[in-house]
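User: Design a sequence. Structure:
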């Protein structure tokens, strides 16, 4: 068994980014991502919120055929720590994902980090398969952070962010 770890950070408002996103807007998008992950994560086809409070959500996520775990559905506990952090715990596999918003030198100098822990019970640690899978996951992680920022910017342009 191996647990693969990945972490990626991207600037939310790099030079010449338009429109500029505020912390409140990015946090609102993170909340949307919790309820409608299919807008942000290509393998996900649907999500049903099973339980919700201000800082916690239990949800059932459905994956497109052949793109997720066996059975195609997982239950996740989601912890929201406004306005900086969301943790996703996959109760079926033990996988863990963290999305963190960070602030730099001023209120628009924002960064988005995704951290992943993916358990693979059938892959041997240190094997060529583990390295290949880790490389593939790194690419997915890298694309996921940038795609989330791109979706947030598109939502702002369309007036689809409510907070």
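Assistant: Done.
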């Amino acid at each position: 068994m191996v647990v693969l770890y990945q972490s990626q950070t991207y600037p939310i408002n790099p030079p010449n980014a338009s429109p500029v996103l505020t912390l409140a807007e990015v946090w609102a998008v993170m909340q949307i991502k919790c309820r409608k992950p299919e807008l942000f994560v290509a393998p996900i086809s649907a999500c049903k919120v099973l339980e919700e409070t201000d800082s916690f959500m239990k949800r059932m996520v459905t994956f497109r055929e052949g793109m997720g775990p066996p059975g195609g559905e997982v239950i996740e506990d989601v912890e929201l720590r406004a306005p900086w952090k969301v943790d996703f715990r996959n109760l079926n596999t033990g996988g863990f994902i963290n999305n963190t918003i960070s602030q730099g030198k001023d209120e628009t100098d924002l960064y988005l980090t995704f951290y992943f822990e993916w358990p693979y019970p059938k892959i041997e640690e240190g094997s060529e398969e583990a390295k290949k899978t880790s490389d593939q996951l790194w690419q997915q992680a890298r694309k996921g952070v940038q795609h989330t920022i791109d979706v947030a910017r598109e939502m702002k342009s369309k007036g689809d962010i409510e907070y």
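The first strand starts at residue 2 and ends at 11. Strands lie at 2-11, 44-52, 56-63, 73-81, 85-90, 96-103, 110-120.
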